[in-house]
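Before the break, one more example. Copy the sequence into your notebook; we will annotate it together after we see the structure.
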Amino acid sequence: MSVHPDYRQFLDGRVTLYAGDCLQVMPVLADKSVDCVLADPPYENHMHVGKDETEHPRGRKIRNDGYVEMKMLDFTSIEPIRQNAANEIVRVCSGWALVFCTPEGIAPWRDAFEAAGARYKRACFWVKPDSAPQFNGQGPAMAVEAFVAVWCGRGHSRWNGGGKRNYWTYGTNAPFRDGRHPTEKPVDLISNLIIDFTQADDVILDPFMGSGTTGVACGLTRRQFIGIEALPHWFQVAIERIGGRQYGPDAGAGPLFGGEAA
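Here is what the structure looks like once it is written out:
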């Protein structure tokens, strides 16, 4: 296997981080070489219109409740690369692919994954009880975020959730929130998705790593991690955050699970 030139491997070989475009990096990974893909790709086009720096310059006040203003997005929409990303995810993954999206993105991701040969299983939802209200009062606020659950492996799909339903409830302003990335997910949400959909010591790939929350969660749950991030400043933040998390036989002793690891 060839190795992308800009990569770093550390923490006893349990973490490998690549700085670069995921569509250029994923081809260096062997077929079915990761057990799970857990990713939070860029939003669909309609969300970028609302959060794009050119449409809403910094300094424009949006919130009136005293909390931190919404951060603008510094990356482009997923739509031009969705099918190519789905193709590579299905190629490298031997188990579940969990991909966050807007509700409007569920059908396009389903179609892309099915075209790539995977089996679409369910639309799932992160319920956010502390989500921001609709400040202009012109309609209901968004209190959930969707992700698609797709089986890329052979045979029947399998997970650890039994008859559990397809929603997970976690606040956005959790104790472990780093706060620098505009679309950061809660560590406890990602940790529990990992526990539900993977096994201890599995290899988890995040091709849109951002500030590294999935890598932090892998450290807490005794999973191995491969992360890919195209923007250099987020790559450095991810190194900082993941490097502070314990990997190896004593992983999982963090406060999220009270000393118990999956």
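The mean pLDDT is 84. The domain at 7-243 is CATH 3.40.50.150 (Rossmann fold). Try to locate both features in your own notes.
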